[in-house]
Write a structure and sequence with these properties.
Elements lengths: L6 E6 L28 H9 L5 E7 L3 H10 L5 E5 L4 H11 L6 E6 L3 E3 L1 H16 L3 E6 L10 E5 L2 E6 L4 H10 L2 E11 H11 L1 H12 L8 H5 L6 H6 L5 E6 L2 E3 L4 H10 L10 E3 L13 E5 L4 E5 L6 H11 L6
Parallel strand pairs: 1-2, 1-4, 2-3, 6-10, 12-13
Antiparallel strand pairs: 4-9, 5-11, 6-9, 7-8, 7-9, 13-14
Helix pairs in contact: 3-6, 3-7, 6-7
């Protein structure tokens, strides 16, 4: 009888959600906001994969590990805590999880800030990915697109083979991708054996592998040394491994998915859950105060104690420009 592989759910919690300012702040990034029926995206991520995995690992940073701990303690969920002293992007973060694992353990790597519905289809996709990973492939999850979205990267594929990864496109290119029919949204979720990932990382980015290993070998209770971490090149898993390896497969997935990376995607999700909008599609987030919109359509009003944001839904990607400006001119408003 074949042994069932050990499966670890690796949750990456490093993002700051700059496109969701002022809701998302450095002290309370979007994945920890209790916006979704009293739950956070992080909590929903843990719950979604609880029945799939034997172990949970949380790879976070020194600034947000207490927020992860609070959620995990609330549900009495045991987990392995890996705490980065400084962000070094996803290749290193995933390498730490792989170094902490048995080489044959299958890792399901997910961000902590995504919304996923249609659990039956999700579990089917995970099962298919585990099957491919157990055969030595590095698996990425591609989402069948529902519209020409400019906020996501894309995967060009033929069957389950990946032909190319594409950056976030402009509107014309996104429409072209959809028309071609063989492009999927890049979900940023992965599945592979720990040892296979490390072999590929070592082959294609040996410095990332070596420096990450040195930092990991010197960890104290999962805490990584700052000086050693700063030696690690900062590079994403996409550039380090996914775009180079010959072992990549894609699972074409039909579950409902959003990375909630902009107020437009938050708006769409909240509308689907019954959040009120007026007759012109205007929405209020963050306050119960009476708010009237005059002469405006598809406008989002975001209210917080220290800052308000008013934006047209279709300009949601531009919020990052405000974040970047505040980083230079008024960083206190990002805390």
């Amino acid at each position: 009888m074949e042994n069932k592989p050990s499966i670890t759910h690796v949750i990456l919690t490093g993002g700051v959600g700059s496109r969701l300012w002022p809701l998302s702040r450095k002290s309370q990034p979007k994945q920890y906001l209790d916006l979704f029926d009293g739950k956070s995206l992080f909590e929903m991520t843990v719950e979604r994969n609880r029945s799939i995995a034997d172990k949970i690992m949380v790879v976070g940073n020194i600034d947000n590990c207490h927020l992860s701990r609070k959620v995990m303690d609330k549900s009495s969920t045991p987990y392995i805590d890996i705490i980065e002293s400084t962000p070094r992007n996803t290749a290193a973060a995933i390498a730490f999880a792989a170094f902490a694992s048995d080489p044959d353990a299958i890792l399901i790597v997910t961000p902590s800030d995504h919304i996923i519905d249609a659990m039956e289809q999700y579990e089917e996709a995970i099962k298919e990915a585990i099957d491919k990973a157990s055969k030595g492939y590095i698996v990425t999850f591609g989402i069948i697109p529902t519209k020409p979205e400019t906020g996501y990267g894309y995967i060009e594929r033929k069957g389950d083979d990946v032909l190319s990864f594409r950056e976030k496109p402009n509107q014309v290119t996104a429409k072209d991708f959809i028309a071609k029919g063989n492009f999927l949204w890049n979900s940023g979720m992965f599945c592979f054996k720990a040892g296979v990932f490390l072999e590929e990382l070592k082959a294609f980015k040996p410095e990332v592998y070596e420096k990450s290993k040195i930092a990991w070998d010197s960890n104290v209770n999962g805490n990584l040394d700052l000086a050693l971490s700063l030696e690690i090149p900062s590079i994403s898993i996409d550039y380090a491994v996914m775009e180079r390896s010959k072992k990549i497969k894609v699972v074409s997935s039909t579950f409902d998915w959003s990375d909630l990376g902009s107020f437009e995607s938050v708006y769409d999700y909240l509308v689907s859950t019954g959040h009120p909008v007026d007759n012109n599609g205007n929405m209020v987030i963050g306050t119960n105060n009476y708010t009237a919109f005059v002469g405006l359509k598809n406008t989002i009003f975001v209210s917080t104690e220290t800052a308000n944001l008013i934006l047209q839904k279709e300009n949601s990607q531009d919020v990052k420009n405000i974040y970047n400006q505040l980083e230079r001119e008024n960083p206190d408003l990002l805390q």
